[in-house]
């Protein structure tokens, strides 16, 4: 699709290639975000622009534009002297941010039970079964992508724009840690059981129950992440 601007004459103005440039920008941001979430670019790692340009097949200009977006999201830190590094949250930051997220998720669930449509509920159920298939195949990246969609759909079903913007802002900082919380298979299976209960509460339109499940679900992820981080600090392997 091309955008052509007219100037009140019979001759159209030059074609503006905004869509392709925007598509490239969005694609680069999405790839880098996935690298960070899935641990390809681990916390604290200094980013090598040349290597990333080669990996993505792009020049430095779109890369640097994408890095600015990720910096605004809190996923990377940019220093005039050190360049860009993947952000690393401290234990206190993890504690505080997951506590905040647990409240946002709980509120989303409570409102969603009041406002979700039959079609939206059916879509979440379909995603749930697709997520189970990923777990059966030990496909953690696929599982996480669908899991993320389920939580996002619940938040959208709340139909509260102020909640939506806050939710997106906070959740971006936690995506890599939420992914990492499923590294241990018992934790992964526990999360699956939580999702079974979430779906039951959502179908019953039981807002208080869904809120309680979501709140504890996020606090359990917080605890799993802090345990993994403590193990990393002392060099203890996680089973």
From TrEMBL:
<dbReference type="InterPro" id="IPR011711">
    <property type="entry name" value="GntR_C"/>
</dbReference>
<dbReference type="GO" id="GO:0003677">
    <property type="term" value="F:DNA binding"/>
</dbReference>
<dbReference type="InterPro" id="IPR036390">
    <property type="entry name" value="WH_DNA-bd_sf"/>
</dbReference>
<keyword id="KW-0805">Transcription regulation</keyword>
<feature type="domain" description="HTH gntR-type">
    <location>
        <begin position="22"/>
        <end position="89"/>
    </location>
</feature>
<dbReference type="InterPro" id="IPR036388">
    <property type="entry name" value="WH-like_DNA-bd_sf"/>
</dbReference>
<dbReference type="Pfam" id="PF07729">
    <property type="entry name" value="FCD"/>
</dbReference>
<protein>
    <submittedName>
        <fullName>Transcriptional regulator</fullName>
    </submittedName>
</protein>
<keyword id="KW-0238">DNA-binding</keyword>
<dbReference type="InterPro" id="IPR008920">
    <property type="entry name" value="TF_FadR/GntR_C"/>
</dbReference>
<dbReference type="GO" id="GO:0003700">
    <property type="term" value="F:DNA-binding transcription factor activity"/>
</dbReference>
<keyword id="KW-0804">Transcription</keyword>
<dbReference type="InterPro" id="IPR000524">
    <property type="entry name" value="Tscrpt_reg_HTH_GntR"/>
</dbReference>
<dbReference type="Pfam" id="PF00392">
    <property type="entry name" value="GntR"/>
</dbReference>
């Amino acid at each position: 699709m091309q955008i052509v601007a007219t100037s009140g004459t019979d001759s159209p103005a030059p074609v503006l290639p905004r869509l392709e440039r925007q598509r490239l920008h969005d694609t680069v941001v999405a790839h880098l975000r996935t690298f960070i979430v899935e641990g390809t670019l681990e916390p604290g790692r200094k980013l090598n622009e040349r290597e990333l340009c080669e990996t993505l097949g792009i020049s430095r200009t779109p890369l640097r534009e994408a890095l600015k977006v990720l910096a605004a999201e809190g996923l990377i830190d940019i220093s005039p002297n050190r360049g860009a590094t993947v952000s690393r949250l401290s234990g206190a930051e993890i504690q505080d941010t997951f506590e905040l997220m647990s409240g946002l998720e709980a509120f989303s669930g409570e409102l969603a039970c009041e406002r979700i449509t039959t079609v939206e509920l059916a879509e979440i159920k379909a995603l749930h079964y697709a997520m189970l298939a990923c777990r059966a195949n030990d496909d953690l990246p696929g599982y996480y992508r669908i899991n993320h969609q389920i939580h996002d759909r619940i938040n959208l079903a709340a139909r509260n724009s102020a909640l939506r913007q806050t939710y997106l802002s906070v959740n971006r900082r936690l995506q890599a840690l939420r992914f990492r919380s499923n590294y241990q298979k018992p934790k992964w299976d526990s999360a699956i059981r939580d999702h079974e209960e979430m779906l039951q509460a959502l179908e019953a339109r039981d807002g208080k129950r869904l809120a309680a499940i979501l709140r504890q679900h996020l606090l359990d992820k917080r605890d799993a992440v802090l345990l993994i981080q403590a193990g990393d600090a002392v060099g203890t392997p996680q089973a």
